[in-house]
Amino acid sequence: MPERPPLSRSRWSIAAVADFVLVHGGFHGGWCWSRVADILRGHGHRVWTPTLTGLGERSHLLAPGIDLTTHINDIVNVLRWESITDAVLCGHSYGGMVITGVADRARERVRRLIYLDAAVPEHGQSFLDLMGNGAAVIAQARAQGDGYRVPPISAEGFGIEQADDRAWVDSLTTAQPLATCTEPLSFQHAGGPTLPRTYIHALRARRRSGDIHAALVDRADWRTRTIDCGHEVMIDRPDELAAMLIEEAAA
User: Fold this and answer.
1) How much is the pLDDT for 13?
2) Catalytic annotation on 93?
3) Which of 93, 126, 154, 209 is catalytic?
4) Which of 170, 173, 206, 231 has its CA at 20 to 30 Å from residue 35's CA atom?
5) Interacting residues of 63 by C-beta distance below 8 A, sequence separation 6+
């Protein structure tokens, strides 16, 4: 497929403008990035907030066969069909699984990976392997989701700060396809992605991201950041997060 010619940009904007592809976590959709996306676009950046198959406004496509590979292909195809060749990929929570797979399969289209309180998988690991609660999640899907749907976590469970935001999030979250959580990530290239990577840890998150952050903080091949809020950073701290994303895109 021939690439779309680049936009004509002024001399100053060529260096400043980044192409952000923001990948949501489990139970969410592209809607959760709306505040951050508005801020980034206000600074002149290009932003995509795709919704993964079976979630959000694509929840009518939810089916047993939707797995991690489906979601990786969703984002690889966004890069291809939107002619994105220098993407800053940011994945939140489960989205870390997706962006890792995308960077392995389409590394020539990605500039940097940003993990937002997210999973950082190795070859052969599934999301449930990293979360350590696989048996409970599978049992919940069997009991409440016909064996293939995981019911959404409440906004209160995610630790969202404002009552209005909790009501908004609860009205939009949808079930997660179980196979996206159980399928192990398989690298096509030995060693997986070797791109520049940043980890942003939400200090008040009730998740394992603190352990991930601690393991990465002294590694020369990673940049690490922290932000003082709960897991739903894009909801509770959109301004701070947008500023961090712009800084990391320029690093």
Assistant:
1) 40
2) yes
3) 93
4) 206
5) 54, 148, 177
